[in-house]
Amino acid sequence: MKKFLLLTAVLLAMLASSCSKYKYEKVADDPLNTRIYTLPNGLKVYMSVMKEQPRIQTAIAVKVGGKNDPAETTGLAHYFEHLMFKGTEQFGTSDYAAEKPMLDEIERLFEVYRKTTGEAERAAVYHQIDSVSYEASKIAIPNEYDKLMAAIGANGTNAFTSQDMTVYVEDIPSNQIDNWARIQADRFRNPVIRGFHTELETIYEEKNMSLTRDNSKMWEAMDAALFPNHPYGTQTVLGTQESLKNPSITNVKNYHKTYYVPNNMAVCVAGDFDPDTMIATIDKYFGDMQPNPELPKLAFEPEKPITSPVVKEVYGLEAARVMLGWRLPAATDKSIDVAQIAGTILYNGQAGLADLDLNQQQKVLGAYAFTNVQPDYGTLLMLGAPKAGQSLDEVRDLLLAEAAKLRTGDFDEGLLEASVNNFKMQLMKQYDNYDERALIFAYSFINGADWTDEVRQLDRMSKITKQDVVEWANEYLGPESYAIVYKREGKDPGEQKIAAPKITPIATNRDAQSEFLTEIQTTEVQPIEPEFVDYTKDMAQFEAQEGVEVLYKKNESNDIFTLVYVFDTGTENDPALNLAFDYLGYLGTDKLTAEEMASKMYAIACSFSMRANANSCSITVTGLSENMPEAMDLVDRLLADAQPDEAILANLKADMVKSRADAKLNQGSCFGALQRYLFYGPDFIRRTTLTNPELESMTSEQLLEKIHNLLNKQHKVLYYGPRPEKEVKEALAAHHKTPAALQPLKKTHVQLLPTDENRVVLAQYDAKQLYYIQFSNLGKAFDVTADPEVTLYNEYFGGGMNSVVFQEMREARGLAYSAAAYIVEPGYADMNYGYKAFIATQNDKMQTAIEAFEEIIENMPESEAAFNIAKESLLSRLRTERTVKEQVLLSYLDLCDMGLTEDRDRQLFEKVQSMTLADVKAAQEKWVKGRKYVYGILGDIRDLDLNYLKTLGPIQTVSQEQLFGY
Description:
Layout lengths: L1 H15 L7 E2 L9 E4 L5 E6 L5 E8 L13 H8 L12 H20 L3 H19 L6 H8 L3 E7 L4 E8 L3 H13 L6 H15 L3 H13 L4 H4 L6 H5 L3 H11 L5 E7 L3 H12 L23 E7 L4 E8 L7 H11 L6 H7 L6 E7 L5 E8 L6 H17 L5 H18 L2 H14 L3 H5 L1 H6 L3 H11 L5 E8 L25 H8 L17 E6 L2 E7 L5 E8 L9 H8 L9 H10 L2 E7 L4 E8 L3 H14 L4 H18 L3 H22 L3 H6 L2 H11 L4 E7 L3 H11 L23 E6 L4 E13 L5 H12 L5 H9 L6 E6 L7 E11 L3 H13 L5 H17 L5 H12 L6 H9 L4 H11 L6 E6 L6 H5 L4 E4 L1 H5 L2
Parallel strand pairs: 3-7, 8-12, 14-18, 19-23, 19-24
Antiparallel strand pairs: 1-2, 2-3, 4-6, 4-7, 5-6, 9-11, 9-12, 10-11, 13-14, 15-17, 15-18, 16-17, 20-22, 20-23, 21-22
């Protein structure tokens, strides 16, 4: 009967659409009011209207990924994703007829290159490729796709490739639907493979970055263990280094012809639009794409059951850890609902089995678990990091013991209802963002899910019983049916560096522009007028009591609240604050143990967190609004009456020392520490960081006293939620207990170090890729009237894929996967502006990268066409972006830090309209040209050209202890 009623609801929705030319599916009680169209050529279109701001998130999803790569050219799906940004016959070129013979010759030469084995012979062929590519580049117009997106005011131009999908995303103004669809249809139908060899260098750099990321190695090893017959395990998304050295443009073209077809694609849109207009526009441009009736179905031998643990090892520089994995059925299997619930019972960040039994009890340094859902198979994964002196096998046994509790039913049945409530809250958060909605549609399409099943998932989850979980665990989480990956510290024996070939930088042709781009620019659209925040109307302010100022914004979208207590003191005033916050998280009160409190908070779908930065700290409570008073009481009681526990503190200290040692093994952590050292200096690090002996000397009494003292201080309260202002005031009076007289706090902040002379700072990290930064303190304090020139300079020079930096460092020279350079705005009214340039590149490209940066920073390339695009893009965003929801409160705090009260975008919009390229050039000369820099490099010093670096300035080598402060 239920199935009949559900079918009736869907049929009625379909009948309701019959008055339109375009029929669509709709599910009753869908909170997103989703419409799903299927065009005659098989193209799926998912829509959800959300008129909060005049923008639309688009995601064009293609059911093809790394699993579909030919075995001889793995990584193809990923590098074709990159090539989809290179243009078509209409854009990206000034003369396609003249360009095509050279592109054909490049394609032929790459086939020769693949079949050539001798090193000298390969170098000769590559030289030919480089020569022809340079000639072809004289006709090409690099980054014209990015210019098109900038011209229509798009944000977030990007794409991503996984094992199962390739998805292309844009966030566009709502008045640019026709232009967007026209560009995308041409791009998906008629991509031209140009700039291939320099883009391949970018992909090499992305591959090199992955070689220092041990998590990536663990994932690949786990997939190989669980899926020996399926491409999930037999090949990787980035591809082998051997495949990347021998690419095939011919294979790329065949790949596009086979998979980039409408019956293998979905257009997913969410935001401010009229559905009838949207579907008509999509049909106008995509409707005549030809389907592939012979679309290949991935063939693979079904995996055999695992009867004994499959063991893998990987090595890398980062800290040791262990991963366990069990194979699950496909995303659409009926058991996946139970799998999702089981994953949260194991770990949810608050009250799961691993949370309470391992993390809260401090039995490991960290333990996590989650369910990963994919179209062909899924996985349940558990990860653990060892404490000092603990072996990976000991961590393994602890994780296995928690998984065993699912099989025996050794868990609180209340976790089922709590997990469903928390799933519901997370969905509310996702649905409240138009960009999230579009991605939800994309994943649903890729997984092959029926939208009715997606909408009814919470209903099904609410009916899952403890017995269902136990039966599921016994079927899928067998005591011997898992794979294990040991991540050990040490040099990766399989690591290879892809050597940098000799490449002639391609022409950038900045002033060239296709007729297609001109047409897009001159297309008339309905103008959208900007709306700026009026902080006297768009939020409220009141005093809860003297010394407690409340910033209030009503949540009109859902039933979730966020309450933040903000104090103007941080680690610069007290470097032990974060230790005190961490300690508090392990403690209970005289009424509740820490485990009981975590379970109560999770049961009412609420959570709290505490954090401190250099200049401020905050306590955040968030969750379902109906439970806000109870959550506030629980947190208030813990803050006021946490019970000390010396054993917990001793364990916490030991774990922090271990975590600190682990951080020194991580490339990203080391680079973050290097930047802090360069920007603020060793004194700042000493002031804000406890040394290990200082950490060891802290007592429970000292740490809890810091919490109690904090509550005696004046502070701000930020409230974003559905309750009326009066109720919030009453809730604070009843549930946020503070003394009648609160002590004032004076906010302080650190200043940038001066850069009076050039110098080089080196930090050792044993990797084939270095992280480089150059930084200058510009010596100018904040001036709000400078906003237009600074913002427009950054937009033109380093603002994104259309910028000078991206074109020069990535497109023309293939030096990096990511690079940036821009004026850094102050965070406070009396701070100075800075200048920062960054690149991650191979060690043997260091000098080329630094010299390229120096050239374009000092002698900024000038292009009227590129400037006009940058200006149009900035103005379009200012017209259509809106500061909404809790961002109103956060932006107000930022303004207060700058000594301002009015939205800075208003002045920006008014001034930029009349600005010219000459203004940007003047800004470059005023702010950037002729500066002194500190050059920072994190890399293998043994592999760097120190003689070259000495030409930049005197060299200082810093130790990890100097960088981290311990």
